[in-house]
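Sequence design from tokenized structure. All designs in this work follow the same two-part layout: the structure record, then the generated sequence. An example of the structure record is given first.
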């Protein structure tokens, strides 16, 4: 599916813009299907369809996805042990599921 991403899409973009677009495409590729009341489950989605969904999802729906991830364990723990190299303070912290964290 990554072959669907045309490198010419990034021509003329700054490095920051290119990184944001790549993250958007990466997230888009993670969408396997979409279920709607009118059409049921749709699995034949183009990369453009997936990208459009992410770019246009209402904030309330995005929050529902984040809440679902927070309350459903599926084999990945979103927490880690953090230790300060200066004072040696140690605490358990949660890894946020936000795009900004990964840049």
């Amino acid at each position: 599916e990554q072959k669907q991403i045309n490198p010419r899409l990034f021509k003329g973009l700054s490095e920051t813009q290119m990184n944001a677009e790549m993250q958007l495409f990466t997230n888009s590729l993670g969408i396997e299907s979409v279920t709607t009341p009118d059409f049921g489950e749709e699995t034949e989605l183009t990369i453009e369809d997936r990208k459009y969904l992410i770019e246009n999802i209402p904030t309330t729906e995005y929050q529902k996805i984040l809440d679902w991830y927070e309350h459903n364990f599926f084999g990945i723990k979103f927490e880690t042990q953090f230790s300060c190299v200066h004072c040696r303070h140690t605490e358990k912290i949660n890894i946020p599921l936000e795009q900004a964290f990964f840049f």
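The radius of gyration is 18 Å. We note this feature because it recurs in several other targets discussed in the main text.
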